[in-house]
Amino acid sequence: MEPDQVTAAVLAGQAATTVVTLLATDAWEGAKSAVTGAWRRLRPERAESIAQELDDSREDVLRARAADTEDETLASLAGDWESRFRRLIGDDPALAAEIRRVLDEELAPALPPEQRPVAGGTVFHATVTRGNVYQAGRDQVFHR
C-alpha cells in the first residue's frame, strides 16, 4: 500500500470503530448527526441511506446486546463501516480531511475517556527477504 492508502485505511478504521462504539451509548444521536452530516456534505445523494444504515446498525447492536453476542456484532459492524468509510475516502482522498475533522471534533470527544484514540500514531512498514517480521503494540513472548 502507498502511504496515502495506509493513512486512508487507518482513518477509515478509526472512524468505523468510533461510530460502532457509539451505537449503543447516550451519545448515539450526536454521532448519527455527525456522520450523516459528513455524508450530506461529501456525498449528499447517499446521506439518507447512510442515516438508515446507522439506524439499522444500532438496532443490530441492541439486539446483540440482549442476546449476549455484542462482541461479534460490533466486530462485524466495524468491518462494514470501515468499508463504507474507505469507499468514501477512496472516491476522493481529499475527503479524508473532512472525515478526520468529524472524527477528531465530533465523534471521538463523545467516547468515554478510556476509549478515546490516542493523539498521534505511528505506521510501520517492513520489507523482509527470507526472515520474519513481528510487530506488536505491546509485549511479545516467543518460546522456541
Report what the structure shows.
With 144 residues, this protein is mostly helical. It is 62% helix and 0% strand. The protein has one domain. The protein has 5 helices and no strands.
Topology (elements, then pairings):
Elements: H1 3-22, H2 28-42, H3 47-67, H4 70-91, H5 96-107
Helix pairs in contact: 1-4, 1-5, 2-3, 2-5, 3-4
Question: How are helices and strands ordered from N to C?
Answer: HHHHH
Which residues form runs of ≥5 with pLDDT under 50? Answer: none
Which structural class matches the secondary elements? mainly alpha
CA-to-CA gap between the ends? 32 Å
> What is the number of domains?
1
Can you give me a brief rundown of this structure?
Helices cover 62% and strands 0% of the residues. With 144 residues, it is mainly α.
Can you give keywords for this protein?
144 residues; mainly alpha; 5 helices
